[in-house]
Amino acid sequence: MTAPTAHRGLLEWVSEVAALTTPDRVVWCDGSPLEWRRLTDGLVEAGTLVRLEKKPNSFWCASDPADTARDEDHTYLCTADEADAGPTGNWVDPLDMKIVMTEHYRGSMAGRTMYVVPFCLGPLTAEKPVLGVEITDSAYVVISLHVMTRAGSAALELFGEDAEFVRCLHSVGAPLKPGQADVPWPCDRTRYISQFPGERMIWSYGSGHGGNALLGIASVMARDEGWFAEHMLVLKLTSPHGTVHHIAAAFPSACGKTSLAMLEPSIPGWKVETLGDDVAWLRFGDDGRLYAVNPANGFSGVAPGTGWRTNPNAMRTLAEGNSVFTNVALTDDGDVWWEGCSDLAPDHLTSWRRDDWTPESAEPAAHPGARYRAPIAQCPVIAPERDDPGGVPISAIFFGGRRTTTVPLVAESFGWRHGVFLGATLSTETTGVVRRDPMAMLPFIGYHVGDYLQHWIDAGERTAKPPKIFYVNWFRRGDDGRLLWPGFGENARVLKWVVDRIEGHATAFHTPIGWVPGTKALDLRGLDPSSHWDIRQALTVDHDEWRAELPLIEQWFATIGDRLPTALHDELEALRRRLD
């Protein structure tokens, strides 16, 4: 077909990739409903998708069991200087990686269609839109981009003849010989996701998911241009009096990110609306405030654990249809199910492995990392400002992990630098091991983590109106292992205290780690009085536990080396003095 653009750089790149990968044909994607129908029909015919009878325009998909998620161990940061990849990046020399991957790409799309998908991250009306093009031989990846981005002709119009864009190249690595039958989930056992920050380019090979670490490239663009690309939700909180505050929050996986983004408050009169559950572009405005835009056009959430009790608004969003469910279970009547979806499991399911499953089966019905993708526009609590290219002003930033001890339910930082320290030492506990995940960005930082943290410090010092920073932990447990905080909709009680702190009329205790509320400062009306003792424990700052935390922080900072910002070293020493 005739290429629908005059952008010389894009045309030349598409020609080069086609010559290297040798597809049967090249298709420029327009993002239309007709294209969606054509692609999904083809994927149903191929056995990749199963059309769901119970959800309109929705599909079930099961991947190859050996290809279930983006592989961090095979995600590479290809910078000219190895030191720029830092301790968190898996470094390979850019030239060496290009030589290796070029040979994998050679002829990799034979017998397949090469799709060219222009897309925009963020509103199409942004003053400087973040543009990209995904070249892929996977129709599954194309429909995922339909849901998650502004993809197709509308985005391509913004390219003009010379706009800058991120180049994303992906192949499943499964060429077809003439007459060879395809499989429902083509992939290769050899996998690479390689970021080339200096060239604004990502090469992905082998996985059928097409993960491309775009946030890593965006983080480099943000550093170079003086903004933030962050792994954050953005929500709008309206009080009973009509005052509005917007909150951005960074949580590692399985720490309650999506459920907070679509929170249903348990306290009367408060209202939460969502602007996004995963990624945020953050820029300081002319008024000195930090403004956030959600670049995604859809939700990509982990399904297990999502249910009517934990996240009813996510369930309502999915009930509208127009969604793709990957590696969940399929019901006999044409719906989907996963652990946590309902209290009782159906008597029979087709598991994510495509096997028969019953409640007596030893394996879970859904893969632990199973996902859903759904358009954000059909969320019942979508904020009307979602598409505002100027973004919304952020009053508070949350950093939150999963800790059974030590970290209290909520603490307010002493200021911006101390808040960056809290984010830099953000931690999550898995099977007793504490893992540091700075700003929940560990897999997504596209350059040295020390430089990333310095960027945070510098940005806050350029404004007199930075948002307040809070550290939260919904998962603290008692000595008997029970959760001390009820969580989910009750998290609105913490949000209310945060708003009261922002507006200057909430009390807090000065502790070595920050300002922490007492039980009287939290609105606990409606909760069983017997739970108040648990909540008091959840708010406790134990000095001995925090002294034990100091060497763990020192070990983490030691891995950053000479590029650790001096300000963070000073904050660690200040914490040590406060504990003494």
What would your notes on this structure say?
- The chain has 580 residues and is α+β, with helices and mostly antiparallel strands.
- Helix content is 26%, strand content 23%.
- It contains 14 helices and 30 strands.
- The strands form 6 sheets. Strands 11, 12, 13, 14, 15, 16, 24, 25 and 28 form a 9-stranded mixed beta sheet that branches.
- Strand 21 and strand 22 form a beta hairpin.
- Helix 2 runs antiparallel to helix 4 and helix 9 runs antiparallel to helix 10.
- The chain is globular.
Q: In whole angstroms, how far apart are the ends?
A: 72 Å
Q: Biggest sheet: strands, sense, closure?
A: 9 strands, mixed
Structural class: alpha+beta
Helical amount:
25-40%
Strand content bin: 15-25%
In short:
This protein has 580 residues and is α+β, with helices and mostly antiparallel strands. It contains 14 helices and 30 strands.
Properties at a glance:
single chain, 580 residues, alpha+beta, nine-stranded mixed sheet, eight-stranded mixed sheet, 14 helices, globular
Spell out the blueprint of helices and strands.
Blueprint (H helix, E strand, L loop, with lengths): L7 H14 L3 E4 L4 H14 L2 E3 L7 E3 L13 E3 L16 H12 L7 E9 L8 E7 L2 H10 L1 E2 L1 H4 L9 E6 L20 E5 L4 E5 L8 H12 L2 E3 L2 E6 L5 E7 L6 H5 L9 E6 L3 E5 L5 E4 L4 E5 L9 H8 L4 E3 L2 E3 L4 E2 L11 E2 L5 E2 L13 E5 L16 E9 L9 E3 L3 H9 L2 E4 L2 E4 L12 H13 L6 E5 L19 H12 L5 E3 L2 E3 L15 H7 L4 H18 L5 H14 L1
Parallel strand pairs: 1-5, 3-18, 4-9, 6-8, 8-10, 13-24, 24-28
Antiparallel strand pairs: 2-3, 5-6, 5-7, 9-10, 11-15, 12-13, 12-14, 15-16, 16-24, 17-23, 18-23, 19-20, 19-21, 21-22, 25-28, 26-27, 29-30
Helix pairs in contact: 2-4, 9-10, 9-14, 13-14
